[in-house]
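Convert to structure. Protein one:
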Amino acid sequence: MTVRDVHHAAPSMTGNLAHLLARHLDGPGRILYHQHTADGWRALDAQAVATDAARWQAAFRREGLAAGDRVALAARNGATWVAIDQAALGLGLVVVPLYVDDNAESIAWCIAHTGARLAIVEGARLAAALASLLRPPAPPVVVLRSGDEPPAGTPADAFVPREAPPFEVVDVADDTLATICFTSGTSGRPKGVMLSHGNIRANVEQCRATGMARADDRFLSILPMSHMFERTGGYYLPLAIGAEVAFARGIAQLPEDLLSRQPTVMFAVPRVLERFRARVEQALSTAPGRRALYEACAERGYRVASGTASRADRLLVPLLRKLVAAPIVARFGGRLRLLVVGGARLDPPLAQTFIGLGVDVLQGYGMTEASPVVAVNREGANVPETVGPPLDGVEVQVSGSGELLVRGANVMRGYWQDEAATRAAIDDAGFLHTGDLAEIVDGRIRITGRAKDILVLTSGEKISPSEVESAILRDPAFEQVMLVGDGRPYPVLLAVSAVKDPKELIRRANARLAGLSRWAKVREIVCADETWDVGNGLVTPTQKLKRPQLLERYRAAIDAAYRRRPHA
């Protein structure tokens, strides 16, 4: 099946992505960013960011960097990240964004693999680690916010001049390389996705055409800008329309930042919603009366939002939202109107809960190779069981094997120095092979699984682990889970949980699997001895499970589980 939208709206952006900033410099100072400092929150207008970017451009010129040279950037979200990115893009340099909390070995490999001429990193510790890992000819390392520790590279204050010529934006062709953005690397070495100015600009226009973002919005940036979901949706898109962005300080300060910054739009991964719902339900666990009202509000509110409400629903929902939902929604700052979710499968009941409470959750779908957005639900036409229709100008097909194929101006140039992988990913017709299994119904895309992650039991039955895992995670007893069982007689569940009774966890897991195939039933469980995070290399920066690494880490325990019960 094919869905094709050949809407060709006149583009409002041309050429270099740095025009996104430059276009705000002609006229009154427009507030673009809110950055937390030692003195509290500081508002920054376009001119302040452009002035900072101009100083970085002067430093790049002094370093001898020329168009096409790569600049690696491993830093936390903030106005400095924006200034460095815009400075590099404006001169035709290629930005290599890296996740600052990734392990130093991975960061060093990416720097070396791309032949970066300069590395800008945050913190003296990372700079010191890179100094010992990078082999000659190693690029100079510039250190942001080194604190009291002596940096192993050049402090940014010494690298960037105080005065500089005005911010410059050179003309570039659409296919000029803008960035090499590394995939999450759930298995093996990550691949460097080459995205051009035209790729990203097209995707920004495609997102803009949905009407989901407005010039009077305030975004809260919580996902790493080193990944294209936040970079396009939470940085380039608001910059294109002149919306404000507040940079969250971190997960620990997120509740406070939500209340003080009062965002209207957020881009998030499902894990953020799962944790929020778990905290709410934990707080209600000792108040069965309020828990019942909360569940009634979520169920009836969703029926109202989806147009299937009864007269009683329409009468009761305003009261239930006032009594139950208002204090919960207030935790988002009180003005949130959109939560756009991507990066991993969103469990439909999770979305329905928030929608029922009055927070519009729009699930989308994309991948780095598509700049990254392919499809998204729309306000007023939201079907959480799907990732919505494709964006204008994006063509999608489902192949005979059930794989989703994507074609459009947003599709990458290819993988950096990997022609074989590029040929495998993009066919002769220009379709990007996503590796995701999908269905298209009434113009909407439903992702059914990841082709390479499908478990095939010895019985021949096939199980989509993401579907089972999403269902189990509805129970707050489970913090993280992974289903295994490829080539085995039945599935075994790996789980991170505060509950340590295996039989109780098996019972609770299976209680969430009603309606799924009987082959998905959990018969054995392996309780993990640690939380899976980026630090121990078991999840990606966007919280995707690194399945091969998890299988290797728990191989002995998994084998022991199958020895206890050798048959289904």
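Protein two, convert as well:
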Amino acid sequence: MPSMPAMTKYLALLGLTLQLAAVAIPGHAEEAALETSLAEAASSPASAQAGAKEFNFSLAKLIGSGRISTLKGESGQLGFSLPVPPTWQAKDVELRLRGTVSSSLIAGSQLVVYLNGEAIQQYPLQQEGNRYDFTLKVPVEKLKSGFNDFQLQANQHYTEACEFPHAPQLWTQVNLEQSGFKINATPKPVVSSLSRLSEIFSKANWHDRPAVSIMTAAKPTPDEVAAMGLLAQGVAGFYDFVPVRISHDVYPLEAHNLLGQFPADSRTAVVMGSFANLGSYLQGLNIGKQDKPVIAVRAMPGDPTRQLVILAANNGKDLKKLATAFALRGLPWPDHAWTSIDKLKMPPARSLEKRFDLPLASSGAFPLRALGYKTTTYSGQDNDGPVLRVWNNSWQGRMQVRVHLTYASGMSPQSSLNIISNGVMQGAIPLNNPRGGIYENYAVTIPAGSLNPGWNTLQFKPVLVPVSNGGKCQPSYDGNLALTVYEDTTLQKFGGDELREPDLALLSGTGSIYTEGPLGKGIAIQMTDDNSDTLSSGLTLVAKLTQVFRRPLMNVWFGVGPAPEMKHQYWIGSYKQLPRDVASLVVTDFPSRIAVEVPIIQSATVEVREGNEWLRSTLENMGIRNTPPAKYTSAEIALSGQFNKYSFAATKEIDGNVVTVLSANSPAILKQGVATLIGYGQWAQLKGRLAFWEPGSEKLSSVSYDDTPFSAYGLRGGLGIWVSQYPWLALFSLLLIIGFIIFVTRRALAAYKVRNHAGHQE
């Protein structure tokens, strides 16, 4: 058990004070014995048969993009990770690889499969018919809990001597959709310890959207609803980037009855309530009578492969304290089955506002790490580099990339780092020093004409060229081809006008720059009723937003019914339960009819002052609008039909506040719809003012201004253009103006002197 002073000192660094009182249940020796017995139980024949299940994953699903991957050159590579959940024991794992090879490859070409850096299989690449179909038995004893790194390396040759290592005929294709894993596994117990919460809620998961149930003894009170919102954020934090479905249920007072109503596809549940209601759940933990709130972990009665997280307190205020501690990331939970929360002191909101103060929408700078990018080194010749998604909430504004990088010595002066935006190259950073070098804040400007309102792509494309290309029997080395792009590379916005139309695409923004307030300040998530399905939809949404913004949103108002007025208001519930004024904002007579605004054109009056960029920048910084806002012309259409099975999301700005609605014809359909929406592909499709989809489908129907043409009209020209066309005339005019100013000034001074001298003589 960690000492109290050391733990307090550690937590003080996090900006809060949290004192934990823990009791070792069981002791270290007993815990080791328990872990051994669990392992034996998991490996027994009866356990091996119980709950056995087959999982199938394509490489396209694991990698997350593409249907075909091409391995080029003499040593083409493809890497991917296989997650192995701590709660499952893999019994049999097969990796099937299918694809096409170049007909130019000769004997000696081979495909090598590496697992966590160790070569586990080799296959010849000279195949009859130019197609291959390999099935590899993966040694399960070499797999570890968590993520296992696989790498395919194609060692390819078309001749035995004087080979050009990057010849175009050196290639092997991997069909990512037809290649993948087949896994047979059985559930595995884990030790019930708070220090293993990251294993209980592991992001190494075999489910698309793992399910976690948060349970109360009855209909939740307002304090319990608020606590559930915080618990959902904590669960989402453990799962990190993995979408998680969170549901609300009512637990039986007798713990042994819980297994019968537990969801079949869920491995973990959270139960919360009073000590009296949770008496049977706390039995055997040797907690005793407690005045302080307690959080505990134990195996589910009747199934040691499932885990229960228990939050017990004497009142709703203490439950919220427990849930707040659970929502904090990086908390060093003790290596025991339970702990009590003695004190929780959060930093004052004012200090948070200072620390999380963010730039204005149309200006300011932010680092790449705000977009989720981590410092990465790119090596070899075949590197696509990082592709980032950047939200541009202004038009007629430009952007500047200030790159911080390091590159290795021994590369050809032809090497460069190309900066590409929306498929258009905006600049190239030369990597031409044979000794290597460092760039700090190398600026590349992306003009306004290359930026789209909404999402934009920004790619850093390394072009690393060796000194010798290997032709004519010259050796070629690519081991020194390396480039590091640092996460403190910044993006700076300049000028432009903020797009004031709300857009559902903002929900899928990544990084802290899309959060206007510290830790979710100004956001209200309001559910129409306390139906379990409605609560489940709200919990799943707040968990997704926590993952999107990469921080706990503890200042979010989360509850049933209207909240105090907030800048960002979310309403969640069946359409019939929505407040009348909210329902009328987005749709009419749902599900029989939906009102849609179809944009026809975007237009704006533009006045360009060439050569006066400083004036425009000054006016913007003073808050004086320089360019008129864009106008959106739309046609209003009402669609009638059977929308009973659909869920929808809509957003609109009202009196400066953005109202976003997620609804469906019933709470059950809404729960299924939100569970579908949080998927990687579906969430990324959110855009426009209205989107609707059928639960379980991969396609969202939406209307967005991104799909409409933009027209700018007005005055084009100014003093700058005239000066550039007639420089000598402009210079003469300037001298003439200066002479006139001198003449007028001298006349005024002379007149003043005469008047003043005459007054003294009198």
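The CA atoms of residues 163 and 471 lie 7 Å apart. The mean pLDDT is 83.
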